[in-house]
Amino acid sequence: MRVLGIDYGEKRIGVAIGDELGFLAHGLTVIIRYGNEQDVEKIAQLVCENNIKTLVVGYPVLLNGTEGIQCKKVNDFIEILSARITIPIVREDESCTSSYAAEIIRNSKSKRQRQHRRHGLVDKIAAVLILQSYLERMRRYGIGEGGVL
Fold it and tell me: N or C: at which end does the chain have fewer Cβ atoms within 10 angstroms?
């Protein structure tokens, strides 16, 4: 089961990939945003190159559980993605993943990692956190690929 995780952002899209057994998420790349068409094409290329069966997109639900403005932007992007990509697209709660990713980098002893914060490392780590959350939930409930609770 190959799964791709997406942390959708205004300037960058963090991308993570699950291992072939569906246990661990790893950072794959960061897509610099140039427009929905180009961004979707890059994601479609990653899906093809890596034999991806499910796409997991971080869904920015507010802390009180409601959907805010960012959810609309993500939904619009998912709609464009679904017109180009025929695999299941799953929304995964991404509450606090970007701030948690920034904290991981801040606490890192690697000066190089701290310097790369501005260059998308936060986005890539956030994508890993989103995907890892999904993979763990699927394993916990024994749900196969493309599953949604």
Answer: C
Considering 40-44, 90-94, 104-108, the range whose residues carry the highest mean pLDDT is 40-44
Q: Is the pTM of this model over 0.90?
A: no
3-140: CATH topology is Nucleotidyltransferase; domain 5 (3.30.420)
Distance CA 129, CA 10 (A): 19
**Domain range list for the chain:** 3-140
83 near 36, Cβ under 8 Å? no
Structure-token pair, residue 69 = 């403005």
3-class DSSP string for the chain: CCEEEEEECCCEEEEEEECCCCCCEEEEEEEECCCHHHHHHHHHHHHHHCCCCEEEEEECCCCCCCCCHHHHHHHHHHHHHHHHCCCCEEEEECCCHHHHHHHHHHCCCCHHHHHHHHHCHHHHHHHHHHHHHHHHHHHHHCCCCCCCC
Contact 16, 26 (CB under 8 A): yes
How far apart are the C-alpha atoms of 148 and 73, rounded to whole Å?
A: 21
